[in-house]
Here is the input.
Amino acid sequence: MFGSGDMNDLRVPIGGFFTLVGAILAVTGVAAGYRAPLESANVDLYCGAALLAFGGLMLWLARRSA
Here is the structure.
């Protein structure tokens, strides 16, 4: 049914998921500008950037090994 190498690497769906969630959080952080009551930093933006970086790393590792 699947060719060799298809769906064997979990880094692709993991990377895609984290990239999507990170992009949503980063856009929310930029657009809303909401800050946590006890924190001066924009937590959504920083967490979104971290998730985007992790998702990009997973996608890059999956592409590099293919």
Observations:
- The mean pLDDT is 86.
